[in-house]
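Subject: design request, 100 residues
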């Protein structure tokens, strides 16, 4: 249940953060936060339930943000690549032939 509650702000925060600091810096920061949480959870003792749960939820929030930032960044780069290629060599453009 906590996992679902953490995903809601993880889906909404990228909308605010990407406008302010950009996609690439925020993507790098959220991946770094997730990596730090994963590394820190390995250092925590197994009997510290609250600490490991907190690190898991922070890492889950960060990786949910990452998932929402990757798709727009990938689409933007694919669109830029498509504009730089000639139309006949573009993999994304579709030529249609009409039957006579």
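Subject: RE: design request

Done. Sequence follows.
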């Amino acid at each position: 249940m906590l996992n679902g509650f953490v995903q809601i702000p993880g889906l909404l925060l990228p909308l605010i953060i990407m406008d302010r600091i950009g996609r690439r810096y925020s993507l790098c920061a959220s991946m770094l936060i997730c990596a730090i949480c994963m590394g820190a959870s390995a250092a925590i003792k197994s009997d510290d339930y609250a600490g490991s749960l907190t690190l898991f939820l922070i890492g889950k929030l960060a990786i949910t943000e990452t998932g929402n930032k990757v798709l727009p960044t990938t689409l933007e780069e694919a669109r830029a690549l498509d504009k730089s290629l000639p139309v006949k060599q573009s993999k994304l453009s579709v030529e249609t032939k009409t039957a006579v």
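The mean pLDDT is 81.
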